[in-house]
């Protein structure tokens, strides 16, 4: 089954951490993500992983009555944003949760695990 492991971030939570903790977490996180990628590639479970650019670079696209509109940036009221993701193909949700728990961001934010669905609406 495929699972999307979505890494959520809230700058307020990050800013609330003591500077020494932020520095340690940031430095360790790069190495930990690289190790997770390597392990998942070796096991054949990694489909893709990526960090996402700052939400200020995003565009929101809507089509209403055939008219396309595109606006800059995220919603002002949103505090949390999607910071990155892993798409994994593993045996069970339990295994997906095990992988998500290794993601360093789970220690100060949250990683959401969601089953991916195919076009027929069935879990992959």
From TrEMBL:
InterPro entries hit by this protein: Dimeric_a/b-barrel, YCII
Q: Which top-rank group of organisms is this from?
A: Bacteria
Q: Which SUPFAM superfamilies match?
A: Dimeric alpha+beta barrel (SSF54909)
Domain YCII-related, first and last residues per copy: 1-114
Query: Short name of one Pfam family for this protein?
Result: YCII
| Coiled-coil features, chain-numbered ranges | none
Q: What protein family is recorded? A: Belongs to the YciI family.
Indicate what this protein is called per its UniProt record. Answer: YCII-related domain-containing protein
Give the organism the record lists.
Saccharothrix ecbatanensis
């Amino acid at each position: 089954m495929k699972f999307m492991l979505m890494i959520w971030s809230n700058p307020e939570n990050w800013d609330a951490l003591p500077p020494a903790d932020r520095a340690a977490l940031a430095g360790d996180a790069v190495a930990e993500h690289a190790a997770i990628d390597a392990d998942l590639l070796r096991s054949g479970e990694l489909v893709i992983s990526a960090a996402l650019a700052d939400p200020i670079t995003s565009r929101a696209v809507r089509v209403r009555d055939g008219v396309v509109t595109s606006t800059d940036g995220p919603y002002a009221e949103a505090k949390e944003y999607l910071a990155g993701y892993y798409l994994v193909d593993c045996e069970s949700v339990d295994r997906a949760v095990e992988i998500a728990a290794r993601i360093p961001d789970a220690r100060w934010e949250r990683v959401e695990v969601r089953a991916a669905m195919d076009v027929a609406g069935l879990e992959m």
